[in-house]
């Protein structure tokens, strides 16, 4: 066995290169790019909820906060919206969920 790495190994111990170029980073270390959702895949109210969630976040906190903001927007919908019917069917307590998602300053802490 040779102590030298194979000639084709670009990531062999090289003092000049300690990190991999961005194109070789794992998917979890780069921002995710999702395919566009076709306009027909969402109802008008669902598109409005997604838009509201995006507007309520910044680029810096979007990955951490967008899901919460989207859920809050969906919780605000009223009948006959399908999401409202689903939440009712599942027995979701909207006020309790809103309280859990509220920032600490709105919880009274």
UniProtKB/TrEMBL annotation:
Species per Swiss-Prot/TrEMBL record: Sphaerisporangium dianthi
InterPro entries from the UniProt entry: Clp_N_dom_sf (IPR036628)
This protein's name: Uncharacterized protein
Segments for region (Disordered): 1-44
Top-level taxon: Bacteria
